[in-house]
Amino acid sequence: MEDIVISVRNVAKSFRRYDRPSDRLKELLFPSRKQYREFQALRGVSIDVPRGQTLGIVGRNGSGKSTLLQIIVGTLRASSGEAHVRGRISALLELGSGFNPEFTGRQNVFFNGQLLGLTRGQIEERFDDIAAFAGIGDFLEQPVKTYSSGMFVRLAFAVATSVEPDILVVDEALAVGDEAFQRKCFARIESLQERGCTTLFVSHAASKVVELCDRALLLDRGEAIVTHHPKFVIDQYQKLIYAPADRYPALREKLRTIPDSPLWPEPPGDRDDLNGSAKREASDDAFEIEADDFFDPGLKPSNSLAYEPRGADIQSPKILALDGRPVNNLVGRREYVYTYEVEFHREATDLRFGMLIKTVSGLELGGASFPAVAQNVTHAAGETRITVRFRFTCCLNPGVYFLNAGVSGTVDGQFTFLARGIDIAIFRVLPPTESFASEIVDLSIAPQIAIDKQRDRAR
Ligand SMILES: Nc1ncnc2c1ncn2[C@@H]1O[C@H](COP(=O)(O)OP(=O)(O)OP(=O)(O)O)[C@@H](O)[C@H]1O
Ligand SMILES: [Mg+2]
Predict the structure, then answer these.
(1) Rounded to the nearest whole angstrom, what is the distance from the C-alpha of residue 316 to the centroid of ligand 2?
(2) What is the pTM of this model?
(3) Per residue in 68-87, pLDDT tens?
(4) Which of 24, 29, 73, 262 has the fewest Cβ atoms nearer than 10 Å?
């Protein structure tokens, strides 16, 4: 029998929602008249976590992740159902609960350490380690309310992990720490894992969930949709959030029918994986729906910048699928056409048309600038409209990208930009059904791995 240390049985949680703050008061005055609406934040959630496992919990904002963690930690009561926990539990919840803002960092370390079951002496013994790990220097002597959110989480994490908990609960908190601190935290989580600490880990960072967790739970609108190997769950989750609105309910329902994995799931491998068996079983299974390109009217660039035009305007920038449909959700490795129209208002020669693709952070990934003469367009006379089409292969990994456009030419004997648009179009690349590609560019890498030589070490 597995040693289950966290057991959640059919947990539901409803909150009362008041439309106006004054409704609360009204209810106090007239208790017989209810002013609130029930809001169901969790419904029928069950999960068992065996000792030493790291369970990732993923889901969109408001899906109930923090509510579930709070019920497990015991800071919130379930409306129905039960949650049982065995062992010392140490939690890093969203709002850094457990810290008193008026106390100094040092006082909070003692206050919190004692809450977590350490004696004063034990805390004194560990204090230097905690201070060193937090690395916030003199701020330890300042009231916690003066901390930045990063400093706050540094200290909270240092305390939470110094007590050698049996169960560690981390709710998204690490995201506010800087890169170096995050790496330090993950190293510490890993060392706790090695010592058999059971961990619940909520994060929006998909790669961290895959890296750190043994199993993952997908929550959606308060319901446990699927519990499986982290890589599988993340893939399904991304497919779900990127699905067009009209396909969302069907996809969600299909995901719900996937049986939960064993407590310790096997990684989805090449031969015996879920995708593979699903492929064999039924082609319309949710987790086998091939991503398809589509147009999402809600996806619009919000910070487009048009340079002051000098003789030409760039209009209607868009991406087309090869069959001519406008799309802004693209499938990796497929071909598309980026097109825009240019309206010339004066005569120009030596025309060049350009494009550029950038990441959200502004990294310029690639583009092109073509002399129009190569396509037998030598010049634009007076009022002229020209359509420009750039066919390209979308060799990008899932994410959001921006497009620039530019037209240059010679006017009045001078070669110059005639019009330029920065971030005038946006597109998203959908997660593929199966891909091991990482980072930004998908180089179509095909690995081949073989053992050349092997010696039995136990001789
Ligand atoms: N005290 C409360 N009163 C009313 N509604 C609440 C309360 N706490 C949470 N909720 C609601 O319950 C739902 C689930 O919230 P929860 O904080 O668990 O989501 P989450 O998955 O942690 O989201 P996020 O990714 O944004 O952290 C939300 O719709 C939220 O508005
Ligand atoms: Mg949350």
Answers:
(1) 39
(2) 0.66
(3) 999 999 889 999 999 999 99
(4) 29
